[in-house]
Design brief:
4-stranded antiparallel β-sheet, 10 strands, DNA-binding
Length: about 300
DNA sequence: CGGGCGGCCTGGAGGC
DNA sequence: TGCCTCCAGGCCGCCC
């Protein structure tokens, strides 16, 4: 609706750039977006040999250790691209590159590594075929780090991560056990990566709407039946969003203005004051733990 | 130890 | 038109 307001004035006549995608700037990468990104990167990056790494701006969420990153990348081939929660990992033999997009991060594939760096391009990888990968992040909440591949499960940033919501381990029995004797609001619990990974503000709001649960409901008060509904809601929401290519990454390679699909399916997120699609009650927004929660006061109890 | 909250960071929006 | 303030939010660290 207000796309133009999110586009820099110069972008209309230039070739596609990261900042041409207004939706990307508005929404944040959660599990479906990272999984879509992972899938879109695989055909372009698997088997590529990294010839050079450039760090233009090391001041990310944690300072980029430039020498370590270069030593961990240069001369190595990308053997696998994996995801853990909202983290993406590039396997490079005995090393791995850990990437988190934070709120505004983006990975872009370029056909030529000679393309000038854009404002907010912080790291660039040059491949043997002349192509490139760029890490772009206006807010610099993301992180990029080279680690030993053997530490992928023991690294401090990964070891505390909770259950993958699209794995078999995430079932009603697990949710029931994990939510006992806690007073935390269910939305905070869902967004806590130590419990469940990959569920951020958008999908937590959407899943709780589907489950018919108020975001503020204490986890300890959930019945077994509600735990089961919650699992179904989280899984179906995430799976549908992955199927839609995420909310933001459908035009990852093109920047042609075509948008992802899932934002058209949002029931409550960013719909404050609009009618509930199910019962027409006005959707409300309330700040919870410093974050906006969107819900239908009639459908969610 | 569970859980709440401040800080990090930038750009868009809105007020004056 | 320009300056100022507010807001968005994942994650960590600090605190109670």
């Amino acid at each position: 609706m207000r796309r133009a307001a999110f586009c820099p004035p110069s972008s209309a006549t230039t070739i596609a750039t990261a900042s041409d995608d207004p939706l990307f700037a508005q929404t944040l990468p959660e599990l479906p977006e990272i999984e879509s990104l992972r899938r879109s990167l695989e055909p372009r990056l698997l088997g590529r040999r990294i010839d050079a790494v450039e760090v233009w701006e090391p001041r990310l969420r944690w300072p980029v250790e430039t020498d370590s990153l270069k030593r961990g990348c240069q001369g190595r081939r990308i053997e696998a691209i994996e995801r853990r929660g909202k983290y993406l990992t590039l396997r490079l033999g005995t090393r791995a590159v850990l990437i988190h997009l934070g709120m505004s991060g983006r990975l872009r594939c370029l056909d030529s590594a000679d393309r000038p760096k854009e404002k907010h391009d912080h790291i660039g990888w040059r491949f043997e075929n002349g192509q490139a990968l760029r890490f772009f992040d206006p807010r610099r909440f993301g992180c990029v780090e080279a680690i030993p591949a053997s530490e992928l499960s023991t690294h401090p940033r990964l070891t505390h991560l909770g259950v993958e919501p699209l794995s078999k381990a995430f079932d009603a029995a697990w949710v029931w056990r994990a939510t006992r004797n806690r007073s935390t609001a269910i939305k905070s619990w869902l967004m806590n990566a130590r419990q469940v990974v990959g569920v951020g503000n958008i999908y937590a709001s959407e899943a709780l709407f589907r489950a018919g649960l108020m975001p503020t409901k204490p986890t300890g008060s959930l019945t077994k039946r509600q735990c089961s509904c919650l699992v179904d809601a989280v899984v179906s929401t995430l799976a549908e969003a992955v199927g839609a290519g995420g909310t933001t990454l459908r035009d990852f390679h093109h920047g042609d203005g075509e948008r992802g699909q899932f934002q058209h399916k949002l029931s409550v997120y960013a719909r404050e004051g609009e009618p509930c699609r199910r019962c027409a009650t006005v959707v409300r927004r309330e700040v919870q733990n410093g974050r906006s929660s969107f819900f239908c006061p009639n459908c969610q109890r």
